[in-house]
Amino acid sequence: MTASMKGKVALVAGATRASGRAIAVELGALGFTVYATGRSSAAGRSEMDRPETIEQTAALVDAAGGKGIAVRIDHSVPGEVAALVERIEADQGRLDVLVNNVWGGDMFTEWGKPIWEHSVERGLRMLHQGVDTHLITSHHALPLLIRRPGGLVVEMTDGKAVDGEYRESVYYDLVKVSVIRLAQAQAAELRDHGAAAVAVTPGWLRSERMLDKYAVTEETWRSAEIDHFGITESPHFVGRGVAALAADPANVRFTGQTLSSIDLATEFHLTDIDGSRPDFPRYYAEVMIPGHPPREEGYR
């Protein structure tokens, strides 16, 4: 990617770690000013209790060539989001890209439990974290984004199909499907303003939490003792895809669609940080679902 986005402004809501951080950094590499928001900061950790901070993300954006601005904010609080957008308007006078990546629901998911056994309190908290935050952020941010044609909204999700395979938790399933539908709804509402909205899903993400879970690092991940880990992708794979989409002056052709990291990599001729192009959807369908032994040859 060679296009310069100097002067363009992005808000990455939920930029503390994983795909949010990588998207912020890759936008920075194109020259964006990036507002990196989240609840985990140098001032204290969120309930996720992870060490990554928004200040670290902002520093990485700077190092990549952009301008990173860390703002500690809870996107479930409308007043805080409104104040953030007012700040962006006062400081920059524009917003070109909104990435709705707020999640924070992992700790509330009870996998494999039917709805009558899953905690209602934990489930509703998951919905609040994964859906309400996106609605609140779009409500306040879109009036600034639509002031200029060419704006882009990216709703980060997990999986592509609204009518696809059930995700083993009714609340998790509802969150991820709702985000896809939200992208479609925003696409319809933004059309007359010359803006686009898409949903984007990574494949099997090698996030910081996932690396910790299997006691490996980004340098040693291939030694993880779990089947099929060879098809995982770094957060920068989807990050590069979202950045390329943001830099594409004709990105409105994708509005309303749900795009995977491999879709974006194929469209924009991108690779992951190791130079490969992992195709998790095809691997999942052809290797994991049929129960074949792990084999990454031909899939990355």
What topology does this entry show?
Blueprint: E1 9-13, H1 18-29, E2 33-38, H2 54-64, E3 67-72, H3 78-92, E4 97-100, H4 120-145, E5 152-156, H5 170-190, E6 196-201, H6 208-213, H7 235-247, E7 258-260, H8 261-268, H9 280-288
Parallel strand pairs: 1-2, 1-4, 2-3, 4-5, 5-6, 6-7
Protein name: SDR family NAD(P)-dependent oxidoreductase
InterPro entries: NAD(P)-bd_dom_sf (IPR036291), SDR_fam (IPR002347)
Organism: Paractinoplanes ovalisporus
What do these coordinates show?
The chain is 40% helix and 12% strand. With 300 residues, the chain is of the alpha/beta class. The longest helix is centred in the middle third of the chain and has 26 residues, at 120-145. The chain starts with 8 loop residues before the first strand and ends in a 12-residue tail after the last helix. 48% of the residues are buried. The model has no long low-confidence stretch (mean pLDDT 95).
Short description:
By secondary structure, this protein is of the alpha/beta class. It contains 9 helices and 7 strands; from the N terminus they run E-H-E-H-E-H-E-H-E-H-E-H-H-E-H-H.
